[in-house]
Amino acid sequence: MDISAVSALPARERILLTAHDLFYADGIRATGVDRVIAASGVTKVTFYRHFPSKDDLVREFLDHRHTRWMAWFVDALGRRGAHERAGDAGALLLLADVMAEWFADPVFRGCAFINATAEVGASVEGALQRARAHKREMVEVIAGLLPTGLSSRMALAQAAGLGIDGAIVKAQMGDAAVAREAVDDLRRLLDALAAAAA
What we know:
The protein has helices at 3-7, 11-26, 33-40, 44-50, 54-79, 82-85, 94-103, 112-119, 127-143, 153-172, 176-197. The protein is an all-alpha fold.
């Protein structure tokens, strides 16, 4: 986001957007409150008025990230014709193209929810619940690509979701070539799942 646009926002939004970018890029544990305060251009008093603790900010970050990522995910599927292909198991293959788009983004640092689970786990109250809810909603969107009468619909969507998470972790651990390999691996898995649904 443009720095001048961020500086024009109300303090709470400015803190949240700054924390979002820092937590996602550098990690939750590596990003202290003082750094968020300095980068968002607010005072300590203002920060603590909006976020009484770093844990409160982490929970808000996860909620914001969920809304933002899910909107992107649904839009990215829609741009590839998912709405027209809903109910066609072959639409699962669109997920590989969507992940390829995300992995190519210069700010890609993996899944914020997988990262948060590894970093803070149960030490931040509500973080694991938010991560689980995020993954459930992602799987529900994936299930929407499959035929509604399919008895194995949720099981196939869960398997696709697990494949996506594996591809995300693999892409995060390497360079652009590794990310392409992760997409290819995911595409093979999705192809097998689509065949199982046919």
